[in-house]
């Protein structure tokens, strides 16, 4: 069972930045792909970005490409999501998730963190 713990959410003004972190209890074939998702009230959970432990392959959703950067620290079993140029539409609960391979939909991920709130004020 892979456990994921997120941190780093908070309140920020539009145009500001935040960095989220996700610590995984282990790195195995079960969680080679580490994804970030977000869910705003009334909306479905949507894909944000993903990175692989092996090779560091990354993919981003169109709304965040060029503003968000996903990275990993293998020694610390930690994945980061650096979020720049934030706008109110980025307000959501952000979740870290793990899957055996790169995927873009929530149902393909087997393990989830508890989520961290990001609020962007205008």
- Compute the separation of the termini in Å: 40 Å
The percent range for helix content is under 10%
* General shape: globular
- The low-confidence parts are none
Percent of residues in beta strands: over 45%
Helix vs. strand class: mainly beta
Q: What is the number of helices?
A: 0
Average of pLDDT: 96
Largest sheet: 7 strands, mixed
Number of strands: 11
> Radius of gyration, Cα only, in angstroms?
13 Å
**Helix/strand order:** EEEEEEEEEEE
Brief synopsis:
With 122 residues, the protein is an all-beta fold. It has strands at 4-7, 10-13, 18-24, 33-39, 46-52, 58-60, 68-73, 78-83, 92-99, 111-112, 116-121. The protein is 0% helix and 49% strand.
Verbal overview:
The chain is mostly beta strands and 122 residues long. The protein contains no helices and eleven strands. The chain has strands at residues 4-7, 10-13, 18-24, 33-39, 46-52, 58-60, 68-73, 78-83, 92-99, 111-112, 116-121. Strands 2, 4, 5, 6, 9, 10 and 11 form a seven-stranded mixed sheet that branches. A four-stranded antiparallel sheet has the order 1-3-8-7, with no helix packed on it. Strand 7 and strand 8 (78-83) form a beta hairpin. It is globular. The termini are far apart.
């Amino acid at each position: 069972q892979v456990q994921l713990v997120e941190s780093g959410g908070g309140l920020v003004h539009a145009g500001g930045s935040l960095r989220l972190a996700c610590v995984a209890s282990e790195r195995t074939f079960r969680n080679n792909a580490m994804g970030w998702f977000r869910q705003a009230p009334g909306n479905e959970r949507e894909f944000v970005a993903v990175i692989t432990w092996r090779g560091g392959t990354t993919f981003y959703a169109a709304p965040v490409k060029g503003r968000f950067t996903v990275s990993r620290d293998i020694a610390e079993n930690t994945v980061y999501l650096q979020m720049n140029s934030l706008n109110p539409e980025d307000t959501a609960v952000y979740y870290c998730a793990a899957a055996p391979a790169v995927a873009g939909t929530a149902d393909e991920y087997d393990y989830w963190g508890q989520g961290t709130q990001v609020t962007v004020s205008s």
